[in-house]
Design brief:
2 helices; mainly alpha; 127 residues
Length: 127
């Protein structure tokens, strides 16, 4: 009896686990892409820190060997450590300020933007 109840519970849980989830929306996809980019940048920073630590250990080893008078082989040539710089989140859906049309009109102003005269006294604008 206990086995059949446990089996029934297992079947119910496995059925729920196999349920199909709806596809993610654009916002969720963008968030996932940003998280992936941040993780990749974090990996690059970690690799840079390991590279700098290895260089420091090698320099210390050669300094100690020279101080002790030991003969050493020249170090193997490796590429220099490259700093990944600060993380910059990409925003592919936003336009830069120049392309967003948020600037002033291209023609020069002919009148000041505001006047002290009430609107009723201002001449009608030409159409």
């Amino acid at each position: 009896m206990i086995r059949s109840a446990a089996l029934l519970a297992l079947v119910a849980v496995s059925t729920l686990a196999l349920a199909k989830l709806p596809p993610p929306n654009d916002e969720a996809k963008a968030k996932a892409a940003e998280v992936a980019a941040k993780a990749a940048w974090t990996d690059k920073v970690a690799a840079y820190q390991v590279c700098k630590a290895q260089d420091k250990v090698v320099a210390g080893y050669y300094a100690e060997a020279k101080k002790a008078g030991k003969a050493t082989k020249p170090p193997a040539s490796t590429p220099p450590c490259t700093d990944p710089g600060p993380f910059v989140a990409s925003t592919p859906n936003t336009k830069p300020l120049e392309a967003s049309g948020a600037h002033s009109p291209p023609q020069p102003a002919t009148t000041p933007p505001s006047t002290s005269a009430p609107q009723a006294e201002q001449p009608a604008a030409k159409k």
